[in-house]
Automatic annotation (TrEMBL):
This is L-beta-lysine 5,6-aminomutase alpha subunit. It comes from the Bacteria. It comes from Polycladomyces abyssicola. Gene3D superfamilies: D-Lysine 5,6-aminomutase alpha subunit. Residues 524-542 have a biased composition (Basic and acidic residues).
């Protein structure tokens, strides 16, 4: 990416250093804790699936079984592997026995820890090899079919019925979409289990289930063969089941996952401790699966002013980048989010939007930046809305964005119809084709409005990040420094699902993932208790 805005490299270095310190502190906190979602994820990776007679997912059944007996601190894998060695059953059979009350895992005497760890390593290799096979298959399909040029055209389906989503997803791919995002049913992020099987009823979207993933993946593979290019599938890896959905996506070859360290905290009131622990493991899975994550900084501008709070978006991008690196994600997998959300009646608003987009492109040159369309200031005037989307598309091609979530002219009126999507695709294709190399021809005036705006936003982001480092991320969230939304350390949903790891805690999949991703092993299980995380955490960590 050609450097077109003179941004102080020392300031960028300061921002990255502050963000790295913030992320390292969070990682130390995470190292000594697990969650019920992480433990359920381990069981899914071991092959446990399905539901009991009452429709409760078997991973939930086993984790709840251990939790009631206060033995989950050793890790669910420890007890299931112990039972495997003692009884000669596979993980699925053990889960089914637990579900009908025929087996109490904690009554089986624990075998030698070394034996349990050897068996765990074997299971981890088997589970992760399946994910590796999917990653290789994706690479082979892209090499054979090819793909659309960047920015990828990203379109949403959200009918609530997976089979209707298939119809609309195929139609969007035929019209030119490169990524089909299946919006998740409203409220699913707040339920502490993953629904099972194909679903045909959802409000504002379709439930994220492994079977739904399988159905849509098969449909997009079929239409990809038809249109002669690989079609990517996106879903939501967030909420109380974040790491479980990451595994489901990895096992069904999803390509893109909405996976943000702060989004669930700020916009779904999920406890910050729970979210940050869950996101660490979920991102390791996404990293190994070759999945591109999308982050949610664009949402900040729905609750805060896009001009005054632009620096908070950049600050969060820096933090998300560093947290992602700690989980093994390559920059090429980091779809850091931002948005074209300034008031269209603002004088020179377009110049400020260009400044924000070009600044992000230069600071994160390898990231496939996810650029979100205007929504907050869409009024229902479809003609003006179509022009707003056209300017959004122009900024994207000018500044080299990676993923273009297409805006719809009926954004403020209803869930877009198929023909609304067709118009959105035509708008983007027309501008992207006609201005494909515009960015190579444009230079910004040194000291001009665009450059000064970018320098101002960067300076504010640096100051904010250094303040967050001083007080700690948890305190910053409590004070509402991101998106003008305040969340308490011990509030929100899911806190009861956070627990301290025991001295002999074992998660074979994290151990194997760290080895395969080239990440250092976490040492000192108690280190998380000695963090400096500011006023909100000091002396109060449960």
């Amino acid at each position: 990416m050609e450097v077109k805005l003179r941004l102080d490299p020392d300031q960028i270095d300061r921002a990255r250093q502050a963000s790295a310190d913030i992320a390292a502190e969070v990682d130390r906190f995470v190292a000594s804790r697990t969650t019920v979602a992480v433990e359920r994820t381990v069981l899914r990776l071991m092959g446990i699936d399905g539901v009991d007679a009452e429709g409760v997912p078997l991973p939930n059944v086993v984790v709840d079984h251990l939790r009631v007996r206060e033995q989950l601190e050793l890790g669910a894998a420890t007890w299931v592997i112990n039972a495997m060695l003692a009884l000669g059953l596979n993980p699925q059979e053990i889960a089914e026995q637990v579900a009908v009350g025929a087996l109490d895992l904690t009554r089986i005497p624990l075998r030698d820890r070394a034996e349990i760890r050897r068996k765990g390593a074997e299971l981890a290799r088997i589970g992760l090899d399946k994910i590796e096979a999917n990653r290789n298959q994706r690479d082979e399909l892209i090499a054979r079919l090819g793909e659309g040029p960047k920015p990828y055209l990203y379109l949403i389906v959200a009918t609530g019925d997976i089979y209707e989503d298939v119809v609309q997803g195929r139609a969007a791919a035929r019209q030119g979409a490169d990524i089909i995002a299946v919006i998740r049913s409203t409220g699913q992020s707040l339920i502490d289990y993953v629904p099972y099987g194909a679903t045909r009823e959802g409000y504002g979207g379709t439930y994220a289930t492994q079977e739904n993933f399988r159905i849509m993946r098969r449909a997009l593979d079929e239409v990809g063969e038809e249109v002669g290019r690989y079609i990517r599938l996106c879903n939501y890896c967030s909420g109380l089941c974040m790491p479980e959905i990451a595994v489901m996506g990895a096992l069904e070859r999803l390509d893109v996952m909405l996976n943000d360290a702060l989004y669930g905290i700020l916009f779904r009131d999920i406890n910050m401790q729970r979210t940050l622990i869950d996101q660490s493991f979920s991102r390791m899975i996404n990293a190994y699966a070759g999945i591109m994550i999308n982050t949610g900084e664009d949402n900040y501008l729905t609750t805060a002013d896009a001009v005054e709070s632009a620096h908070t978006v950049l600050a969060s991008q820096f933090i998300n980048e560093q947290l992602a690196l700690l989980s093994g994600l390559r920059p090429q997998q980091m779809g850091l989010g931002h948005a074209f959300e300034m008031n269209p009646d603002l004088e020179d608003g377009l110049l400020m939007e260009i400044a924000q987009a070009q600044m992000a492109r230069q600071i994160f040159p390898d990231a496939p930046l996810k650029y979100m369309p205007p929504t907050k200031h869409m009024t229902g005037n479809i003609f003006k809305g179509h022009i707003q989307d056209a300017l959004f598309n122009l900024v994207s091609i000018l500044t080299g964005q990676g993923v273009q979530l297409l805006g719809m002219m009926t954004e403020a009126m209803h869930t877009p119809h198929i023909h609304d999507r067709k118009l959105a695709i035509e708008n983007a294709q027309y501008i992207f084709n006609n201005a494909r190399h515009l960015g190579e021809e444009i230079l910004f005036r040194p000291g001009g409005r665009i450059e000064r705006r970018a320098q101002e936003v960067l300076a504010k982001a640096v100051a904010m990040l250094e303040e967050v480092r001083r007080i700690g991320l948890f305190t910053a969230i409590e004070r509402g420094m991101f998106a003008d939304v305040k969340r308490p350390l011990h509030g929100g949903r899911g806190l009861s699902g956070v627990l301290e790891k025991g001295e002999d805690y074992f998660n074979p999949f994290e151990t194997e993932l760290r080895q395969r991703l080239g990440l250092p092993n976490r040492g000192g299980e108690g280190d998380g208790d000695r963090l400096h995380t500011g006023e909100a955490l000091r002396g109060r960590v449960e």
